[in-house]
Automatic annotation (TrEMBL):
Origin species: Akkermansia glycaniphila
Keywords, in A-Z order: Elongation factor, Protein biosynthesis, Transcription, Transcription regulation
Database matches in InterPro entries: GreA/GreB_C_sf (IPR036953), Tscrpt_elong_fac_GreA/B_C (IPR001437), Tscrpt_elong_fac_GreA/B_fam (IPR023459), Tscrpt_elong_fac_GreA/B_N (IPR022691), Tscrpt_elong_fac_GreA/B_N_sf (IPR036805)
PANTHER family on file: TRANSCRIPTION ELONGATION FACTOR GREA
Protein's name in the database: Transcription elongation factor grea/greb c-term
GO molecular function terms listed in the Swiss-Prot or TrEMBL record: DNA binding; RNA polymerase binding; translation elongation factor activity
Keyword Nucleotide-binding applies: no
Domain Transcription elongation factor GreA/GreB N-terminal, first and last residues per copy: 487-554
Taxonomic classification: Bacteria, Pseudomonadati, Verrucomicrobiota, Verrucomicrobiia, Verrucomicrobiales
Amino acid sequence: MHADLEKLVAKKKIPEAFAARLDKFSPGNYVVHKSWGVGKVKEWNLPENSIVINFESKPDHQMELKFAFNLLTPLPQGHYLIACFEDPKGIWASAKTDPLTLVRLVLNGNFSGKDGEDEPQPIAPEDVEKNLKGRVVPEGDWKSWWEKARKAMRDKSEFILPTRRGELIALRGETMSPAAALLEDYKKARDLRTCVRLLDAAKPETLKDDHDVVLELVAALEKDIEEGGVNVKQQILELIIVRDELIDALLKSADKGKDGVPAADQEDEGIRKLMAAIPDMTTLDSVLAGISSEEIVAFIGDVPAARQKKIYEALPEAHNGQWLSYATNIFLFGGSKAIGEVAKFIIVKGEGEQLYQDIRNGISRQSLPADVLVWICRERKGAAKPVFTLALGSAIMNAIERDASDGGPNKGLRLRNLLVEDKQLAPDLIRNVTESEARPFAKAIYDSASLHDLDRNLLLANMMRVHHGLQEIVLSRTKVQEKQQLYVSIESYNQRKAEYDELVNVRIPKNKQDLTVTRAEGDLRENGGYQDAKATRQVLMRRSEELARNLAQAHPTDFKDVDTSRSGMGTYVTVVDPEGQEAVFTILGAWDSDPDNRVIPYTSKLGQKLTGHAVGDVIKLPFVPGEKPVKLTVKAIAAVNP
């Protein structure tokens, strides 16, 4: 305890418990403020109730002791933030070449300061970033440094890494082999999803030489496979595949023998027991036989491609004569991450022609999901070449319009972006047909409300390189577009343009960054932050598309010098009811609406009823918004902007 406090306690001027609390703020100790960062107490003056602290961003900052109690958190001795405060450049110099030196410093010095918690505590990845980025690691170097640090941690069994959002980074209490560390983590896992993530992160080459531990891990896997419930079928399939891979690696390692001695000259009781147990283990095809195609399409896209391949290879054994329809159902409804692998499997098995016929039927009925259409377009010079025809163009436009009208732009947006960004896609669709055959597809593109004006024009321009006569579509649509043009006030146009600019330049890029950051945290299925960012992206993209369409149609005007001989857009219309009461209606642009103050857009029903009248005309309208219509006489017409 500080000498000043000991004197006060001895004189019984302050309780000993309070002195112990106060001692944490004595000169030489360290504190942290949520905005000012870490600080070292330079001096204090107890009689005057003041304290001077050297903060990272506020050197020699003086404050009242009572405020220090409320605003500052004392740092216990040995805390990693103290080392980062005292020598950030020195720590960064060593961390640049060996990231684990800094990671170990953090994990060995993450003391909570709470009574009874004397050991360093695990830490969340986001707290590591919050406390190190800009303090020790320069902000511009953070991303590459943290990736390097995470990779290094994965290679060291001393670290326990999170497998999902919300879990912490920790140090193991003892040194153990990679296989032993994996087994320990596997046994502690809360569910089979976590088990799969742990096995995904493991490196097989580091496990194969630790036979006894791997045998125990295989036994634990088999137990979970046998006892797994109906709600974890994906994880059971993946555990079977991982178990078989471990067994293969173990047997290959045993065949090579230990220390170069042939395996035949060695006794390995564990290997013999394993080989004897293999025939009784649960097989991939036996589990697949109990999973319907409707069930598997819900999760097959979340299975890594290499494991998907093994699942497909087991289908003929699992479903006998029904395997082709089963695989075709996966192709149609399994999602973008399953389509390529299952199509390759069907073709390799010699059933490609049947798959192509199913695709042709889907194109003619315009019932293929957007993911399948994307695959056909991308594989048009490869696996999908037999079904890449002009008929596909109609199916693409139908899918884009359907998804846009359903209010779910996720899959339709992907297809639309492919159509717009792949500059050869639309020309390739019409390359082998006549101009008259290509014309309906070109019209569908040019008339689509789901495509921006610029995108439509670029698509038509690309198609004109194949058939020049398609430019007539552009010319014939010009007059129609002029009729569809909306007149809006400059103020309302600027408001929507500002909203669109903020979406495109600020909110969407930030959301993209959020997706990147949360995706890096792993396990997208359990990652709440990633799912939230993905849902937000759908809302932002839908709104940006809506604004882009509206702005393309809009013609801003200041309503200058409008004709006041008759009521219309840009005029004040004064009306009188049968009792002599007057009211003034303001007719403005399509986006100007304030019913309570009788400001109405010219495109509204009320605006259309008010338009085209001269002074003295009698019209039937509600005098008060929301009430029954009455006969009103037009008394005066004046310009909004004379």
